[in-house]
Specification:
The protein has about 55 residues and is an all-alpha fold. The protein is about 35% helix and about 0% strand. The chain has two helices and no strands. It has helices spanning about 1-15, 45. It is elongated.
Length: about 55
């Protein structure tokens, strides 16, 4: 079990070490909580074309 966990961690490290891998602030917005202490750091409203994720 420990070896499988280590292998999985190493795969994640390699994936995120790749400059082409995006760091998505909300990978699944449908199941994410409406409020997050860290969401404002993603600057979602600033980078969206409409001013917000919900299109408002």
């Amino acid at each position: 079990m420990t070896e499988a966990a280590r292998d999985g961690l190493e795969r994640l490290i390699r994936a995120y070490d790749d400059p082409a891998t995006p760091y998505i602030s909300r990978p699944d917005p449908e199941s994410a909580p409406r409020y997050s202490d860290y969401l404002h750091l993603a600057r979602v409203k600033e980078w969206s074309g409409t001013g917000g994720e919900d299109g408002a």
